[in-house]
Design a protein that fits this description.
Largest sheet: 9 strands, mixed
Helix content: 10-25%
Strand content: 25-35%
Order of helices and strands: EHEHEHEHEHHEEEEEEEE
Number of domains: 2
Distance between the termini: 31 Å
Radius of gyration: 18 Å
Shape: elongated
Structural class: alpha/beta
Number of strands: 13
């Protein structure tokens, strides 16, 4: 089951609509302010979650009138609205999760959303944060990126927590061979794919992969 989560960050309206048309999902979760975009687009999610401290009462009432399931949480909670949405997606048996509206001006929220990728990784479920310029994913093992399918021109690799050992890159402008990358390392930023496919292998650790376009 493919699940789409709409968060309350900055959303490029035209991009998001096109993305939803081109990438249909089986289940849609609105996380708090993410429902503002859906109301404008006149799209109904399957469920809305959050403490609703950043959404207008009019928008909340609009979805209530449409009989959309609403799960309200207290503002004094241990989890962010996005974390609640990701956990719900996993509990519902999602086999793939995509998140829109997780990036924007609030760096604390964005970093928190990136950290939520580890929840999906631990569950063995592919999860991507996507906006008009970036696709962000977290991996615990080897991956291949086909040049024709990459999300933009640049590929940046960052160690996520513990060191990434024996990191080897093939098919990139800047190759690596058996490198140990730590969270203090910037050597993996702004690489480019030069062959039909790029191969990334490593023995241990978790690797944040950010594909970007200007």
């Amino acid at each position: 089951m493919k699940t789409l989560i709409i968060g309350g960050g900055n959303i490029d309206y035209d991009f998001a609509l096109a993305f939803m048309r081109e990438n249909p999902h089986d289940f849609v979760i609105a996380a708090d302010k993410g429902m503002e975009f859906l109301r404008r687009a006149e799209r109904l999610p399957d469920v809305i979650v959050g403490d609703f401290d950043s959404v207008s009462p009019e928008t909340l009432a609009w979805f209530a009138e449409k009989k959309v399931e609403i799960r309200k949480f207290q503002p004094q909670k241990d989890s962010t609205d996005m974390e609640i949405a990701v956990l719900m997606a996993l509990e519902n048996g999602s086999t793939q999760i995509t998140v829109l509206g997780a990036t924007g001006s609030r760096m604390d929220h964005m970093l928190g959303s990136i950290r939520n990728l580890s929840l999906a990784l631990c569950a063995g479920v592919p999860c991507s944060i996507v906006d008009a310029h970036n696709r962000i994913r977290l991996f615990g093992g080897p991956l291949t990126i086909k040049k024709e399918e990459q999300y933009g021109k640049y590929v940046s690799l960052l160690a996520f927590g513990e060191p990434v050992t024996n990191l080897t890159l093939r098919g990139f402008f800047y190759p690596l061979d058996g490198y140990t990358m730590t969270c203090d390392d910037a050597i993996g930023v702004s690489n480019q794919i030069t062959e039909n496919e790029a191969r990334i292998t490593f023995d241990s650790g978790r690797l944040l992969v950010i594909e970007s376009r200007d």
